[in-house]
Design goal:
Helix content is about 95%, strand content about 0%. The protein has two helices and no strands.
Length: about 150
C-alpha cells in the first residue's frame, strides 16, 4: 500500500511540474523589463500629477487673489461710507448745536424783554398806586382843608 501511495505522489508531482512552470511561459518579458515599464508609468503619472497640482494651485491662487481684492474694495467702500456718515453726523450735530444756541439766546432775550416789560408794568402800577394814594390823600387834605376853612369861615 505504501508503494501505491508513493507512485501516486510521484505521478502527481510529474503532472504538476509542467503545469506550474507553464504559467510563466506565456509572458516573454523579463522581470527587469516589467520593473522598467512600471517605473516609466509611475514617472509619467507623477509628472501628470505635478502638472495638475500646479494648475490647480495657480487657479486657487488666482481665485484667492480675486477674493482678496474684492474684500479689499468692499472694506475700502465701507470705510469711506462710514467716514462720510461720521462727517455728516458731526456737521449735523454742529448745526443743531448752533441752532439750539441761537434759539436759546433768542428765547433768553425774549424772556429778558418780557421780564423787563413786566417789571416796568409792575413799577408803573406801583407808582400809579402811590400817586393815586397821594392824590387821594392830597385830595382829602384839600377837602379837609376846605372843610376846615369852611368851618373857620
Amino acid at each position: 500500500m505504501k508503494i501505491k501511495w508513493v507512485a501516486l505522489l510521484g505521478v502527481g508531482l510529474i503532472c504538476a511540474t509542467p503545469w506550474m512552470s507553464g504559467q510563466d511561459s506565456s509572458d516573454n518579458k523579463s522581470t527587469s523589463t516589467e520593473v522598467k515599464d512600471a517605473t516609466k508609468t509611475a514617472t509619467k503619472d507623477t509628472q501628470k500629477g505635478v502638472k495638475t497640482a500646479t494648475k490647480d494651485t495657480e487657479k486657487g491662487a488666482k481665485t484667492a487673489s480675486k477674493d482678496t481684492k474684492t474684500v479689499a474694495k468692499k472694506t475700502t467702500t465701507a470705510t469711506k461710507t462710514a467716514t462720510k456718515n461720521t462727517e455728516k453726523g458731526a456737521k449735523t450735530a454742529t448745526k443743531d448745536t448752533e441752532k439750539g444756541a441761537k434759539t436759546a439766546a433768542a428765547d433768553t432775550e425774549k424772556g429778558a424783554k418780557t421780564a423787563g416789560k413786566d417789571t416796568e408794568k409792575a413799577a408803573s402800577k406801583t407808582g400809579s398806586a402811590i400817586k393815586k394814594g397821594a392824590k387821594e390823600v392830597g385830595h382829602d387834605v384839600k377837602k379837609g382843608t376846605d372843610k376846615a376853612v369852611d368851618t373857620v369861615k
